[in-house]
Specification:
By secondary structure, the chain is an alpha/beta fold. It contains 15 helices and 14 strands.
Length: about 400
């Protein structure tokens, strides 16, 4: 096929992140963000190809997602990369929830879109925005393949023993209650990149991936397939996060409703937006928390210790699940940049095989790298995630296979 470019769209309720990539060499041709859609203070920030100009920003009302994508198209056109270009092979959409049906990148049809809509009750904050982005892109380029790449897809290989909750089966099946997992494109990319770093095929490697950003999740990957992950029905389960509690006794919800008079919505806001690091110490930026820890702040110190304790629990649990671990990979904003988190998470686990070299850990780099000594039985890696590239690759491969079929 001659068209080699893929536009990747990540549509939020009031934002659109986008990247245009050329899949011949995975080069980024443009990167941008439209934020505060629907407000008078809307803003579009566009970065053109490297060496072809400085970042451009424009402000002013952008009424809706349709206007946002038209504005994106205008910016791309200024660089000779317009949405009408014959070089554009596909538009790849990040879709957060694909349930059990969507296990691979999927060409978006009316039937597929209807199923994504049916999943809104289990992803009310994300799927509606993803749907809006899809429909807008379809209207602009109805002739172009629109591909959905699902956050949940990588985790659909989990066995039922890991995916099911221990509740009444009929109730669970009726209401689609099970563990789905999220950040799947990141876990897929990082697990493969870690295998490459070790000079092995993904099928030969068992990896624990720690995606640590404001949202955080862990996964156990055996031979390239996810066998367990920390997030569940929603992204609330699992690790301590920036504003989310992670694992908590479900009865806390009932207690707060009965004793504190909180509504279900009140508890939802508490656990998703006022908990985690921000609930423990008032900050959800790990850089600020570490500054406070170094200054002797006890609340920040406790928050950091709770964060690391939960990490260690999941690392240990996934050792047990995998049986053999070849590498532990840190990724995303905190995982890639917070050396103290990596050091603390591995400290005390040396008997299991992983070791962190202090000098290697202190190096700041945008490249995938090992931070463990060559003698370590289990490698420890820092692997910058690239979810947009993963979405572009999956979208392009699907379209290419369709053309060659």
């Amino acid at each position: 096929m001659t068209a080699t470019r893929v536009l990747v769209l990540n549509s939020g309720s009031s934002s659109v992140k986008y990247q245009l990539l050329d899949m011949r060499d995975s080069a980024r041709l443009a990167v941008g963000l439209v934020e505060r859609i629907g407000e008078s203070t809307s803003r579009l920030v566009h970065t053109p190809p490297a060496g072809d100009g400085e970042r451009r920003a424009r402000t002013g009302a952008i009424a809706d997602h349709s206007a946002a994508l038209k504005a994106v198209g205008d910016e791309l056109a200024r660089d000779g990369l317009g949405l009408d270009s014959p070089e554009l092979a596909a538009i790849g959409h990040r879709v957060v929830h694909g349930g059990l049906r969507f296990t691979e990148p999927t060409v978006i049809t009316d039937e597929v879109l209807a199923e994504i809509e049916r999943l809104v009750p289990v992803a009310p904050l994300h799927n509606p925005a993803n749907i809006t982005g899809i429909r807008t892109a379809q209207a602009l380029r109805p002739d172009l393949p629109q591909i959905a790449v699902f956050d949940t897809a990588f985790h659909t290989t989990m066995p039922e023993s890991a995916a099911r909750y221990a509740i009444d089966v009929e109730t669970a099946d009726t209401h689609r209650i099970r563990r789905y997992g999220f950040h799947g494109t990141s876990h897929a990319y990082v697990s493969r990149a870690t295998a490459a770093l070790l000079g092995k095929d993904p099928s030969e490697v068992n990896v624990i991936v720690l995606h640590l950003g404001n949202g955080a999740s862990a996964s156990a990957v055996r031979g390239g397939r996810c066998v367990d992950t920390s997030m569940g029905l929603t992204p609330l389960e699992g690790l301590v996060m920036g504003t989310r509690s992670g694992d908590i006794d479900p009865a806390v919800t009932f207690h707060l409703m009965r004793v504190a008079g909180m509504s279900a919505d009140d508890v939802d806001v508490l656990l998703n937006k006022k908990s985690g690091l921000v609930g423990l110490c008032g900050d959800n930026d790990m850089r600020e928390i570490r500054r406070r820890v170094d200054a002797g702040d006890e609340r920040a110190g406790l928050a950091f210790d709770i964060y690391v304790h939960r990490l260690k629990k999941y690392i240990g649990a996934y050792y047990a699940v995998l049986g053999r671990v070849d590498a532990i990979a840190f990724t995303a904003g905190v995982g890639e940049n917070a050396a103290p988190v990596r050091e603390a998470a591995i400290a005390g686990l040396e008997a299991l095989g992983p070791v962190v070299d202090a000098e290697l850990n202190a190096v700041r780099s945008g490249e995938a790298r090992l931070i463990s000594p060559a003698s370590a039985r289990v490698a420890v890696a820092v692997v910058p995630t690239d979810e947009e590239l993963e979405i572009a690759r999956q979208s392009y491969d699907l379209v290419k296979n369709m053309v060659n079929a």
